[in-house]
Specification:
One of its GO terms (cellular component) is cytoplasm. The protein has helices at 14-21, 28-47, 61-69, 72-75, 99-108, 119-125, 144-156; strands at 4-7, 52-55, 92-96, 135-139. With 158 residues, it is an alpha/beta fold. It is globular and about 40 Å long.
């Protein structure tokens, strides 16, 4: 697509990485500043009219709201008022699949700070996207070309 790509894992603070390396799951207090920093990156790219893809485990609805609206999503459950730092338009892609498939992929990953043992905590935290969130769900049981085609089709359809 020619879009700019960011991997959210590259932006975790050292404290978060150390915690995960030790097998300790992150909590909301660990994740919120990280998500706010990611929102700032997305806002900057949006302001320069740069289309962007962010690979991020935005596990909870609140986390996705922070990516869209920044810190204001935490401070209030109210929608933003017109003219007040308008929310970003984001299509969330929920990669969904059985735990055993994901665990197998994590086992093959080398040099990453999150050990496969934390997968259960990720599933425990997960709140799959639902209406009215702007999202698609893509099965990880499909082939990589099928996954990419489904995501690209959704992006191009707006």
């Amino acid at each position: 697509l020619g879009w700019k790509f960011y991997d959210a894992d590259d932006y975790h603070p050292l404290e978060n990485k150390k915690k995960m390396e030790e097998g300790i799951p992150l909590n909301d207090e660990d994740r919120i500043p990280w998500l706010c920093a990611l929102h700032d990156i997305l806002r900057r790219e949006d302001a320069s009219r740069q289309d962007t893809i962010l690979a991020c485990s935005a596990l909870k609805k609140m986390y996705r709201r922070v990516l869209i609206s920044g810190a204001s999503a935490i401070e209030s459950n109210q929608p933003e008022q017109p003219g007040e730092n308008p929310a970003l338009k984001i299509l969330f892609v929920h990669l969904d699949g059985p735990k055993d498939i994901i665990a197998g992929r994590l086992e093959k990953r080398r040099g990453h700070f999150m050990p496969p043992e934390l997968l259960n905590s990720q599933f425990d935290t997960l709140e799959p996207p639902s209406a009215p969130e702007n999202f698609i769900t893509v099965s990880l049981e499909k082939s990589l070309p099928e996954i990419l085609l489904q995501i690209e089709s959704a992006i191009l359809q707006g």
